Amino acid sequence: MSDKQFATIAVRAGIESDSQHNAVVPPIYLTSTYSFPGLGELPQYDYSRSGNPTRNMLADALSELEGGAGGVVTSCGTAAINLLVSALLGPEDLIVAPHDCYGGTYRLFNTRANKGDFNVAFVDQSDPSALAAALAKKPKIVWVETPSNPLLRVLDVEALCQQAAQVGAQVAVDNTFLSPVLQQPIKLGADFVVHSTTKYINGHSDVVGGILIAKDPEQAENIAWWANCIGATGAPFDAYLTLRGLRTLVPRMRMHEENAAQVLAYLQTQALVGQIYHPALPDHPGHDIAVNQQQGFGSMLSFELAGSQRQLEVFVAALNCFSLAESLGGTESLIAHPASMTHRAMTDEAQAEAGIKPSLLRLSVGLEDPRDLIVDLEQAFKQAAEVGA
Ligand SMILES: *Cc1c(COP(=O)(O)O)cnc(C)c1O
């Protein structure tokens, strides 16, 4: 791992690396192919599906931030997850995943398992007996999301990695919700880290991208081989934009958190707000773990609207500073209704089992002035209250 601090790694990745014109900011390589010096002389790069200097620069920077041996930048977060299961799992193998995992991850694992590509067991990983029963089946991979989406449940990664190691399972952590600034799973014992870089890492809601990072150099080579084989790698232009976003990741994460803390404090005073889900709350499941394993609480939070479906509709429609949209981690604030949006791929039963109620709303608190965010919430609650239950 580098001896540099996070902000320095993020800001200086690839800076002054251009040997042709001494450009301070690294150029973008939009080429699909590269010339060979001569017959039988293989250049460092030969084809951009296999390797591209701009994409590799981003992969190296993120891998360094996560403390990994290497990573593959993919076309989206889902492609990174698919790359992991393609590289590691066969028809006899089992992956254990959380019952409340990201909707697209749930769909991917479920669909591929139904095709017979591998086996999946969805369990409540915070339930020790359910987890022990799943681990007893000797999974090859344990998939972890912490904090989880959308209920922000926090799981003890270090403890889970120790338990997984006892049955020979490798642990992969989806670190999208916190970014390496607020949590480093490899340091906690994980073997793989996945990001949807679409979210905080790019941070400007203008790129869809992902990365899979391996702790072990052999696995880093293995996933790079598979990424080329199945064609999972990302576009150079996307990598360039994501590297640009990465440069401000540290200050953005700090401001995201500050704003979320103010929104959280405001929500706690509201009559129309029921249960709030955020790791900073002392009675939140896993709060104590979050204090130890995270370097901050992040800026995702969910709450149940304590009113009718009609009031929920009025509240959401009245907001001006929170756009009704899926995704998260951009500079702009978003609101989502998990039951009908991000988690609609789950059946009603699966949603109920995961604790996702129809009254649940999820906020991605952005970088607007928090005073404006609170004024906006205030007028939307007022309109919802006026409709009456
Ligand atoms: C968005 C997201 C993904 C999927 O990433 P895409 O870039 O949309 O493919 C996976 N996990 C989490 C936690 C996410 O938020």
Task: Give structural notes.
By secondary structure, the chain is α/β, with parallel strands linked by helices. The protein folds into two domains: 6-246, Type I PLP-dependent aspartate aminotransferase-like (Major domain) (Aspartate Aminotransferase, domain 2); 250-387, Aspartate Aminotransferase, domain 1, CATH 3.90.1150. Helix content is 39%, strand content 14%. A seven-stranded mixed beta sheet has the order 1-7-6-5-4-2-3, with helices on both faces. Helix 6 (157-166) links the parallel strand 4 and strand 5. The mean pLDDT is 96. Pyridoxal-5'-phosphate binds next to helix 3 and helix 4. Its cofactor is pyridoxal 5'-phosphate. One of its GO terms (molecular function) is cystathionine gamma-lyase activity. InterPro entries: Cys/Met-Metab_PyrdxlP-dep_enz, Cys_met_metab_PP, O_succ_thio_ly, PyrdxlP-dep_Trfase, PyrdxlP-dep_Trfase_major, PyrdxlP-dep_Trfase_small. This is O-succinylhomoserine (Thiol)-lyase.
Quick recap of the structure?
The chain is of the alpha/beta class. The chain has 14 helices and twelve strands. The protein has helices spanning about 5-10, 55-65, 75-90, 105-115, 130-135, 155-165, 180, 215-230, 235-245, 250-265, 285-295, 310-320, 350-355, 370-385; strands at about 70-75, 95-100, 120-125, 140-145, 170-175, 190-195, 210-215, 275, 300-305, 325, 335, 360-365.
Assembly state here? single chain
Structural class: alpha/beta
Mean pLDDT: 96
Count of distinct strands:
12
Q: What radius of gyration results from the CA coordinates?
A: 21 Å
- What is the N-to-C succession of helices and strands? HHEHEHEHEHEHEEHHHEHEHEEHEH
CATH architecture label of the largest domain: 3-Layer(aba) Sandwich
How many domain modules?
2
CATH hierarchy class name of the largest domain: Alpha Beta
Note the main sheet.
Answer: 7 strands, mixed
Name the overall outline.
globular
Q: At the fourth CATH level, what is the homologous superfamily of the largest domain?
A: Type I PLP-dependent aspartate aminotransferase-like (Major domain)
The helix content is 25-40%
Give the number of helices: 14
**pLDDT under 50 segments (min length 5)?**
none
Organism: Photobacterium lipolyticum
Cofactor: pyridoxal 5'-phosphate
Keywords: Lyase, Pyridoxal phosphate
GO molecular function: cystathionine gamma-lyase activity; cystathionine gamma-synthase activity; pyridoxal phosphate binding
